Amino acid sequence: MATSDEKPGRIKQLRMIAQIIQQANPKGMPIVFLSAVATLAVVVVLGLLLGFVWYAIPLGLMLAVLVGLIVFGQLAQKAQYSILHGQTGAAAAVLQGMRGNWQVTPAIAVNRDQDLIHMVVGFPGVILVSEGPKSRVGKMLASEKKRVARVVLGVEIYDIQCGDEEGQVPIAKLQRHIMKLPRNLKKPSVNEVKDRLRSLPKNLPMPKGPMPKGTRMPRGPKMR
User: 136: domain range?
Assistant: First the structure.
């Protein structure tokens, strides 16, 4: 059971998320309430038609709360992505929000234009994720792929460009894109790859300006 100290904290967190939704989309919270009210109305009407209205009211209230929370969560996710969009290190914030046996190392390579490459280790193998224009990050990814390959011989290495240009993966679809990659390694092999890569130094220091912190990204779906 939640303690009395936890409840005010959760309420405060929900209020903060509601404010973020409202800033990103002024119609967001009205949509949440309307979806809940509409669900309740549909269930009550069905109860009247089928003759079990007294059972329909509590059932409708529970379903209304459930639907409202689902819509609230979806809008919160969109709002968080909109806040991260365009920020340095946004992809790292998304990657670190993935659930499962993932090891994320932000900014293993940075250039003078503040383009970044992050490294993820998991069941697919090693995944290199870039942030920046295609014209600049292509050579960075190729260089990092060669550098990593020397340490993890025989392990699959994927390179993904995160961005809005053609051929890049939008930040809102990054988690799902990675979750769809094939499972090439078993857990012991994943841990072995992690151990090998611990000795791999970063190419350049962290970029100037703050990396997104404190933004809790929604957990992505579990890999099948």
Answer: 90-197
Q: Which of 110, 200, 190 is nearest to 146 (CA)?
A: 200
For residues 117 and 61, the answer to whether their CB atoms sit within 8 Å is no
Instruction: Mark the ranges of the chain whose per-residue pLDDT is less than 50.
Output: 1, 205-210, 213-224
**Sheet strands side by side (includes 125-131):** 103-110, 116-122, 125-131, 157-162
| Residue 36 falls inside a structural domain | yes
Q: Summarize pLDDT for 141-176 with one digit per residue, the tens.
A: 999 999 999 888 889 999 999 988 898 999 888 989
Q: What is the identity of the amino acid at 187?
A: K
C-alpha–C-alpha distance, residues 45 and 142, integer Å: 61
Task: Judge whether 210 and 92 are in contact, CB under 8 Å.
Answer: no
**CA–CA dist 217, 144 (Å, integer):** 27
Count of structural domains, the chain: 2
Give dist(CA 182, CA 35) in Å, integer: 37
Please check whether residue 208 lies inside any domain of the structure.
no
End-to-end Cα spacing for the chain: 31
Give the separation between CA 139 and CA 111, rounded to whole angstroms.
11
Residues 50 and 110 in one domain: no
How far is CA 68 from each of CA 73, 162, 219, rounded to the nearest angstrom? 9, 31, 19
162-to-42, 71, 103, 138, 169 alpha-carbon distances in Å: 42, 26, 18, 11, 5
